[in-house]
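With this grant's support, we have settled on a layout for protein records. A representative record follows, to show the layout.
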Amino acid sequence: MQHLFHFLLVAFFAATSLLLTACGGDKKKDPAPTTGMVNGQISPANAVTTVTATSGGTPATTATATPNASGVYAFAALAPGTYTLSYTPAAGFATPAPQTVTVAAGETVTAAPVTVTVSVLGGSGSGFAYTVGGAPATATLVSANVLAGSLVLQGSSSSRTVSISLDQVPTGPRTYSFGGVGSTSEITVMEAAGSNFAEWNTTLAAGSGYVTITAVSANPRRVWGTFTAVAQPRGTGTTGTRTLTSGTFSNLSF
């Protein structure tokens, strides 16, 4: 009897083992990955609008990625191979040099960080120019400063100063449209009138203006843009209006 019990116990474990092996053999394996991932970092974060990955194969294939607010970009599914990463700069920034990465299936490649330099728009140095009453004018002294949360741009010559006060410091391209009573942004024109100054301002009734920021760099902080204004007289003895057109400022450090 003891030998029979031993024989049945061995047979039971053998059958169980075969059953488990059979069940395990039916389990499907996950398919092997066929693509890889590439990510990278742009600095300043707003300096590049598009990153393009171009394969080295024939025919070449391309994919694009857009950096997020922190300057991080990613390609989630690239076929294995060698890719050239090229960068489309935002306005006011120079084009970064391309770089090459090799993608393997199932792996993530981190590209070398890209630091983008500022380009000078409209020539070298800082500039501030406009047309007033049909006559072109160029400021000989220009400045930009952040005061109480506002960005103040100023262009002066021997007889006139034009000041632009924006109620928020821009971090990228945008347009400020303002004018009239209650406006929190303004353009002021001051001209020498003998020993005094005459003043015109866009915050008065019928005043108007706009400023378009075309580019901002974060490091160093510089700004480019355009502006127009219809400024109304302020104060006793000041008459008429001052209409500014074709206004531009470039490469102003703040």
In short: Residues 2-25 form the longest helix (24 residues). The chain is about 10% helix and 50% strand.
